[in-house]
Amino acid sequence: MQHVTRLQFLCGGALLLFLIVICGLLAADVAYLSVKGTRWQQAIALLIQPRILFAMRMSAATSLTTLVLILLTAIPVGYALSRYRIPGRSLINAIIDLPIVMPPVVAGISLLAFFSFGVGVPIRHALESAHLSLASGIGIVMGQYLVAVSYCIRSAKAAFDSVDPTLEHVGQVLGCSEWHAFWRISVPLARNGLLAGGVMAWARALGVFGPLMVLVGTGPRVLVMPTALWLELSIGNIETAVCIALIMLAMATTALALVHWLIPKGSAI
Questions:
Q1: What whole-number distance in Å separates Cα of residue 62 and Cα of residue 206?
Q2: pLDDT digits (tens, 9 = 90+) for 213-243
């Protein structure tokens, strides 16, 4: 029998304790519904209320739209960070990572200031001229995008770092243009990392709450799952709030499982 060292015991114990805490939190949600006598049929009835279904549809529509915008940003930005020598690289990296550590409410206030006093004022005027408002799906997408895009950029950079640049040079020697080498060689080889980053960013966008509270509010036309959860909790519908929480946890867990399946073993992503 293999001898367990003190370090192995300490690290294994810390891992076990952490898993117990997280699983305990998940189990507590289910246990709460059981204690309250909420059966699965009743839980489904709570979730198919019109306002909850609307929030689910709005969350799906806005988060998928946000995902498209994130991928359109993250792929070229991640490639640039991976391949090009850019002046002020440390400052650029700090700016890119800032949304990850920025308090969510600060992100919302910054967006509000941007469209009220910053260079975003012409954008707001253009939206208003088209009879569009920030307090709509557009504002939701902007809030989700700001919070989630950095995750995908980091994943995209790591994915392109794992692709040998020599393969692109060989492709160009054989007649590929720089664009074709990027699109036909680098992107396919980095595909799993890019997909993993997209899934992670989508899961993050799905749970955005703070910026949306500041920028778009909690009106019935801008209701998404996080704000619906908060509203249900604020009026005492705790069972409905817990049901929404369980749905969001299930979606996040599925997304993370997909991310870990896509990322190769030993990857830095």
A1: 8
A2: 998 988 888 899 999 999 998 888 888 888 8
